[in-house]
């Protein structure tokens, strides 16, 4: 039908041009020819583009180019692009793999990882997600207390995720078990007291944020132990209305004395806070931490020993950004009563039911607006020699064998 109309139109145009030529209107005819030729070209070009565009958008497997900065040598390509080879028409299983990736190893550098982790969905998920707690272990090497944690996690798969940041020089795999095996993330050297320690913490948070079902994020070390069984700790964190980051104004030389005037006006002395390195945060705060480009460069440049970034960075920025979301306390107990730059370390002879029960219920704090004696969920620093005693006490104290 379209071709017929074009043919008739062409014949009428030819007759009209001949008539105008005979009548001396050649310039007008020439102008009309040029104009109509261009119109025809645009018409057919539009049909061509429209046909190809329709085929592209209706295709079940459209091609989205991946960012060229990512290496293709990784055995499992990272979710580096926003679509991550996963369209809305994909099956739920593929979408779940993207929302909760099983493999924690990837080829992203820190800049790419933080960018990817800072993404926040603007719509509800198309299916229900079980909220999980991300247990992030910042370790020098092995996990000597792993058998205790094995008992802690056993039987609660689907309610937790594990991430291990260890020194790059440590090449041995964690214990071959469903709990810790293949849970080590790409890591970089982290030196105590230096900004690289905060880099490691942000790296752990960013990797854990890639799993959209992770709702709470707890930082632990290889010397940490749980003080309660898994259901108790899980419910405590998931149901909490606040995060747990130690933050207070310390007027002493080890507090305000570490403030650098070069941080002003981004960070003033009245903003300056101190707190424990061992934090627990809600997902909203975790995203704020990994996407921070305002305060992090200031701290990295002006907070070096004797200013210790891991004691001041989070305590300060969370007080500035969202003080209402923080309880200003840590849920990891550490003993500083003996003084010195490092907390007390506990060995086999220190372990007893009385000692651990005091840590479990020997303090007073606020939880969801009410008073509570359950203030600490974890404790450190426990020497490897304590493992045997802890395993012996665990069934009665924690109820591990009765979960």
From TrEMBL:
Originating organism: Rubroshorea leprosula
Pfam family, one: Branch
Gene Ontology terms, MF aspect: glycosyltransferase activity
Lineage of producing organism: Eukaryota, Viridiplantae, Streptophyta, Embryophyta, Tracheophyta
Keyword tags: Glycoprotein, Glycosyltransferase, Membrane, Transferase, Transmembrane, Transmembrane helix
Name the record gives this protein: Core-2/I-branching beta-1,6-N-acetylglucosaminyltransferase family protein
Example of a GO cellular component annotation carried by this entry: membrane
Membrane topology: Single-pass type II membrane protein
Intracellular or extracellular location(s): Membrane
């Amino acid at each position: 039908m379209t071709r017929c109309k074009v043919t008739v139109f062409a014949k009428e145009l030819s007759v009209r041009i001949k008539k105008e030529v005979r009548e001396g209107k050649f310039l007008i005819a020439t102008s009309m020819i040029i104009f109509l030729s261009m119109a025809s070209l645009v018409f057919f070009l539009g049909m061509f583009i429209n046909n190809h565009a329709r085929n592209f958008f209706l295709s079940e497997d459209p091609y989205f180019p991946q960012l060229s900065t990512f290496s293709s040598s990784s055995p499992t390509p990272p979710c580096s692009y926003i679509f991550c080879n996963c369209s809305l028409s994909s099956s739920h299983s593929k979408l779940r793999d993207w929302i909760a990736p099983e493999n924690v190893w990837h080829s992203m550098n820190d800049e790419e990882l933080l960018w990817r982790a800072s993404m926040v969905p603007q719509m509800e998920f198309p299916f229900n997600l079980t909220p999980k707690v991300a247990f992030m272990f910042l370790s020098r090497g092995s996990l000597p207390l792993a058998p205790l944690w094995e008992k802690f996690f056993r039987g609660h798969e689907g309610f937790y995720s594990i991430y291990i940041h260890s020194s790059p020089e440590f090449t041995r795999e964690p214990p071959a078990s469903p709990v810790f095996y293949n849970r080590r993330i790409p890591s970089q050297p982290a030196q105590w007291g230096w900004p690289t320690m905060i880099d490691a913490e942000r790296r752990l948070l960013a990797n854990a944020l890639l799993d959209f079902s992770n709702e709470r994020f707890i930082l632990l070390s290889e010397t940490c132990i749980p003080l309660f069984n898994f259901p108790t700790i899980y419910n405590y964190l998931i149901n909490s209305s606040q995060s747990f980051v130690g933050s207070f104004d310390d007027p002493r030389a080890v507090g305000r004395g570490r403030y650098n005037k070069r941080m002003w006006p981004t960070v003033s002395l009245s903003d300056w806070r101190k707190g424990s390195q061992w934090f627990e945060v809600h997902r909203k705060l975790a995203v704020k931490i990994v996407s921070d480009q305002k305060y992090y460069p200031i701290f990295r440049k002006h907070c070096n020993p004797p200013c210790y970034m891991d004691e001041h960075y989070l305590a300060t920025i969370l007080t500035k950004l969202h003080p209402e979301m923080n309880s200003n306390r840590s849920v990891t107990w550490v003993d500083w009563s003996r003084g010195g730059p490092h907390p007390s370390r506990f060995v086999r002879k220190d372990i007893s039911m009385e000692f651990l029960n005091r840590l479990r219920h020997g303090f007073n704090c606020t939880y969801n607006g009410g008073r509570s004696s359950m203030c600490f969920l974890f404790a450190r620093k426990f020497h490897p020699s304590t493992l045997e005693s802890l395993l012996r006490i665990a069934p009665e104290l924690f109820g591990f064998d009765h979960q």
